[in-house]
């Protein structure tokens, strides 16, 4: 009989159990208001206090310098695929892109609607494995509005730890699937954005960190609710924000602080990923083709020897409470997403199952 479920979904992903319990406990009556937090006006003093506290906790976690604004936006990660080029187009008619997988490609495709795009580099093969090359400055365009890359390719399982050097050109990063998984030096970036539904909270929200000199370079046609300057002026409440997602994000930030912040969670994340990659490397039955320097600590991808075995693996895994391990449809195989909320016990249960399955089917 199944007692416990571990959810390896890439997003919307599992949330910490204690966060869900707190949300449940105060679902009908938030802090004595006699109402659910989702029934409060976003302009009420209670809600504004909640929103400000969530922003402060987020700032504390990432040590965000004071010359950066934090925006709570609608439209998820893809909303920012459009918002970034529209908001920076006034700086130049071209932008540079590092392409490392499905999501950086998606961002580049969308940006083409608003400006010319220049591909600085694609992934390369290193010792037969997928790797990200160093940036060749001669590949960057003159008068680029920004340089865009994705710090963690959720579909492909590729993570870039080193921050590329884009010189004076503002660096823009899609951190949807690894934000808050480790400390980062925010001062190296012009804009950081992330859809919420992995390490932040439920979907419906994107968090955007914008250096203040980049707030006001938008093309005139930018929709007002995506305009960073307007968003900032109205404290992310130009239109009604996704209040419940914002609230839950606030609970997740508090939880992360209780865990010891990002240095502590990074250590746990590294341990979890090491366990899983060790299992893959020690069992020839499982294959991961990402170069060790670029293996994602959030989305661990692997293949089995055949489609039939992969189908069987998924059925057996689910019967043991190991859920949502199917890889993204465009790459196939398996994917274990092990964001902040995944306890190490989940990874141990998975690797025990993987070794056992390989023994029985190898
Ligand atoms: N960027 C990355 C890295 C992602 O993983 C995702 C979603 N999985 C997106 C962008 C798109 O996010 P959304 O579905 O919220 O638009």
From TrEMBL:
InterPro entries: Aminotrans_V_dom, Aminotrans_V_PyrdxlP_BS, Pser_aminoTfrase, PyrdxlP-dep_Trfase, PyrdxlP-dep_Trfase_major, PyrdxlP-dep_Trfase_small
Reaction catalysed by this enzyme: O-phospho-L-serine + 2-oxoglutarate = 3-phosphooxypyruvate + L-glutamate; 4-(phosphooxy)-L-threonine + 2-oxoglutarate = (R)-3-hydroxy-2-oxo-4-phosphooxybutanoate + L-glutamate
Subcellular location: Cytoplasm
Statement: the UniProt record of this protein carries the keyword Transferase: yes
Residue positions binding L-glutamate: 43
Modified residues (N6-(pyridoxal phosphate)lysine): 198
EC class (word): transferase
Residue ranges of domain Aminotransferase class V in the record: 5-347
Alphabetical UniProt keywords: Amino-acid biosynthesis, Aminotransferase, Cytoplasm, Pyridoxal phosphate, Pyridoxine biosynthesis, Serine biosynthesis, Transferase
Manner of cofactor binding, per the entry note: Binds 1 pyridoxal phosphate per subunit.
HAMAP family linked to this entry: SerC_aminotrans_5
Family, as annotated: Belongs to the class-V pyridoxal-phosphate-dependent aminotransferase family. SerC subfamily.
Protein name in UniProt: Phosphoserine aminotransferase
Originating species: Paraglaciecola aquimarina
Lineage: Bacteria, Pseudomonadati, Pseudomonadota, Gammaproteobacteria, Alteromonadales
Gene: serC
